[in-house]
Specification:
- The protein is mainly β.
- 0% of the residues lie in helices and 48% in strands.
- The protein is built from no helices and eleven strands.
- A four-stranded antiparallel beta sheet has the order 2-3-4-9, with no helix packed on it. It has a four-stranded antiparallel beta sheet with strand order 5-6-7-8, with no helix packed on it. It has a three-stranded antiparallel beta sheet with strand order 1-11-10, with no helix packed on it.
- A hairpin with a 2-residue loop joins strand 2 and strand 3.
- The termini are close together.
Amino acid sequence: MSDFQTVARATEIEPGEMRQVRVGRKRIAIINVEGEFFAIDDTCTHEEASLSEGDLFGDIVECPLHGAAFNVRTGEVEAFPAVVPVETYQVRIVDDEIQVAT
């Protein structure tokens, strides 16, 4: 069974925005795609860079360092130079709180 932890308020992250949060030792990017929230590892699998500091194009996040891109819904690689997907996490909203399963 997953353990959900509150990481932010839904009203704090507008559509099209991303934010890095910490859950234990993990850095996780919370992404708002048109009012739907997703959570992925915040570190690019190609090189040590924060995905939440990159650009969001719909449901694709582009790494600010070398342009690797990932689908925030699935974690799958959408553009090289990355070849390894990022981990995704289950998200739920409870009373305006964004909760992530770890």
